[in-house]
Specification:
Elements: H1 10-21, H2 25-38, E1 43-49, E2 55-60, H3 67-72, H4 100-107, E3 109-115, E4 122-128, E5 131-138, E6 143-149, H5 156-160, H6 165-182, E7 187-192, E8 195-200, H7 205-213, E9 221-227, E10 231-238, E11 250-254, E12 257-259, H8 262-271, E13 284-290, E14 295-296, E15 307-308, H9 311-328, H10 341-344, H11 347-353, H12 355-360, H13 365-372, E16 377-378, H14 387-395, E17 430-432, E18 436-441, E19 444-449, H15 450-468, E20 473-483, H16 486-501, E21 505-508, E22 513-520, H17 528-542, H18 550-562, H19 572-582, E23 598-602, H20 603-609
Helix pairs in contact: 1-4, 2-6, 6-7, 8-9, 15-18, 15-19, 17-18
Bound molecules: adenosine-5'-diphosphate and magnesium ion.
């Protein structure tokens, strides 16, 4: 027998292990920047040559290291940040594995200069291939300066795997930005081959985000901020017009750590549903904070993925927070944050977001800012609008006019517009194509989509009826028997309490059979049976849409179903009532699903169109 197993020499073992942590220059950038942040620096400078292939240097003014620590820092599993397994669940620092410096030292040449403010002299260490070449006392400013040179000088195979300078630089910039965005209170600069690429003064979160995304974003960000006992979300989403054709400016940070999460990305996208074209991506920079105990940041060595103890909660919360923000700025349709049932039952989550609480909170300032807004889809002078679309718009017969189809419609948030119609009673309304109602407004005219408008009115009516339990049920002359197929009967049985709360008087009557005694007032006599069947049909369509609760789905279905349709001719009085009711709504400007109910054409815009 021959024994063939042997222990790998340390430096080889380190090189192999380093592969986990340091794949390219940008990995070192991330680790070194994070170390500087963890050291409490208020100023961090990153200096790159040759896209990091020649050198990566990070200079910080943090707490520095003692002589012994400076040497220890390069040992594998050497860290000052955790000392036992429990610490893993209360991590407050960016690093904790104690592997970065050991890894870098295994695959590059490293020079470290560090000094603590309590000392007069600092320490200089030179190390390569995991071997210390030099260690001596030296004069140094407070803080740490660390350089990584000739990455993979001793692992040519890996060096050959590095990409073009442009590609490696892109990675470096990505990492730099991710750290800089997470810590706006710290000054960051990036210099590449002697040229300053970024210079971020310390400032507020918004300032930092604008520094990164570019000045034009200053007026295009909507603030997101929601706090509960369980978690906080803050940050910004771009107004719908900033949505891009490519996935670009999308950032999630969890406890200041940049993460990638397709799941949470979906939550944000869904909050933007119907507000941006299907194939475009919203801009967002969102910071989630929650107790480290409900996180597992240990799943991936480079820590861009994260596991939440309950990701459903985080999903629902993020989605609701973004919806809320958009609604507050009157960009989104409504305040209906319906979370799914098991999430709803959680106290910390349900408090700020359920309808019940919304009701209780109607006196709150938040609710008032929202209800006070009658923000229309204002038409603003827009250089890019082309007149031919104007015609397309009028000719369009379809009931669902979506954003893409409205080049003239630009959404503008954060502005309050009073009810635009100046006098409901004393004006003549014009109905166009039996679909649009033209009405004079205070400073121009508005064009109301009759079906969308009515859908909004009914939606708010049913919501109110649901909560106040006051509904206008009209009793049917004769009870009507409704026989259903088994699946429909089961569904109706399930929905019965909600349906009754909406104003239907309906009861089970033997196997798969129900009697209808009454309906909401807006159901035409003779239509009772049909209206229930339609409701069930629509509800089934909606069923795949998990983001809405039962009640919300029902209300949406029923409002859509009962709304007057496009193509229906209306009398003066009916148009007047429709407009009066629309502008009495909490959110008159959109349908529940986010389509505009009316467009406002302002005088100054009209003047401009006519060359005045
Ligand atoms: P980790 O960050 O996971 O602890 P590292 O290998 O990145 O592991 O760093 C090892 C240790 O070296 C850190 O725990 C810290 O004590 C020290 N250290 C590293 N960089 C710095 C720095 N810029 N300033 C002060 N101390 C540092
Ligand atoms: Mg570290």
């Amino acid at each position: 027998m021959t024994d063939i197993i042997q222990l790998l020499p340390d430096n080889i073992a380190n090189q192999i292990a380093a592969g986990e942590v340091i794949q390219r220059p940008s990995s070192a950038v991330k680790e070194l920047l994070e170390n500087a942040v963890d050291a409490g620096a208020t100023e961090i400078k990153l200096i790159i040559t040759d896209s990091g292939k020649a050198s990566v240097t990070v200079i910080d003014n943090g707490k520095g290291m003692s002589e012994t620590d400076a040497r220890m820092a390069f040992e594998r599993h050497a860290t000052s940040k955790i000392s036992n397994i429990e610490d893993l669940f209360r991590i407050k620092t960016m690093g904790f594995r104690g592997e970065a410096l050991a890894s870098i030292a295994a695959v590059a040449q490293v020079e470290l200069k560090t000094k603590q403010s309590t000392e007069t002299l600092g320490t200089f260490i030179e190390i390569e291939n995991s071997r210390v070449l030099k260690q001596e006392a030296c004069a140094a400013p407070n803080g740490t300066s660390i350089s990584m040179k000739n990455l993979f000088f001793n692992v040519p195979a890996r060096r050959n795997f590095l990409k073009s300078n442009a590609a490696e630089m892109r990675h470096i910039i990505d990492e730099f930005i991710r750290v800089a965005m997470a810590f706006p209170e710290i000054f960051f600069s990036l210099t590449s081959n002697g040229q300053q690429v970024f210079h971020f003064e310390a400032g507020t979160l918004k300032q930092r985000v604008v520094q990164v995304l570019g000045a034009p974003y200053n007026a295009k960000l909507v603030t997101v901020k929601e706090q509960t006992d369980y978690m906080n979300v803050q940050g910004f989403v771009g107004k719908p017009e900033t949505a891009k054709k490519t996935r670009g400016d999308q950032y999630f940070f969890v406890n200041n750590r940049f993460i990638k999460s397709a799941y949470l990305n979906h939550a944000v996208n869904s909050a933007f549903e119907n507000m941006i074209p299907k194939d475009s991506y919203p801009t967002y920079v969102l910071y989630i904070d929650l107790d480290p105990a409900v996180l597992d940041i240990n799943v991936h060595p480079t820590k861009q993925e994260i596991k939440f103890e309950d990701e459903k909660i985080v999903y629902a919360f993020v989605q609701a927070a973004v919806k809320h923000a958009l609604a507050q700025f009157s960009i989104a349709p409504s305040l209906d944050f319906t979370l799914n049932a098991d999430i709803q039952s959680l106290d910390a989550i349900s408090k700020p977001f359920t309808h019940q609480n919304q009701e209780a909170a109607t006196g709150s300032s938040l609710y008032k800012t929202f209800t006070n807004k009658h923000q229309a889809h204002i038409i603003e002078p827009n250089e890019n609008s082309e007149l031919r679309h104007w015609r397309d718009f009028f000719v369009k017969k379809e009931t669902d006019v979506s954003y893409e189809q409205q080049p003239l419609n630009s959404v503008s948030g954060a502005q309050k517009t009073p009810i635009p119609v100046y006098d409901f009673q004393h004006q003549t309304y014009i109905q166009l194509h039996n679909t649009y109602i033209l009405s004079a407004s205070n400073n121009g005219f508005i064009l109301v989509h009759q079906q969308h408008a009515h859908e909004r009115i009914l939606y708010e009516k049913y919501n109110l009826a649901f909560h106040s339990q006051v509904h206008t049920t009209q009793n049917s002359l004769f009870p009507i028997t409704l026989e259903l197929a088994v699946p429909d009967a089961v569904l109706l049985e399930d929905l019965l309490p909600e349906i009754v709360a909406l104003g239907y008087a309906i009861e089970p009557f033997g196997t798969n059979t129900f009697v209808i005694q009454g309906t909401p007032a807006d159901v035409a006599p003779g239509n009772e049976k049909h209206s229930i069947e339609l409701l069930l049909e629509q509800f089934k369509h909606f069923s795949s849409d998990i983001k809405f609760g039962k009640r919300e789905k029902l209300i949406r279905c029923i409002s859509r179903q009962h709304a007057i349709k496009a193509g229906q001719s209306l009398q003066q009085k009916e148009m007047q009532t429709l407009l009066e009711e629309l502008f009495a709504c909490t959110t008159p400007n959109t349908t529940p699903s986010g389509n505009p109910t009316y467009l406002e054409f302002k005088e100054d815009y009209l003047d401009k169109m006519f060359g005045k």
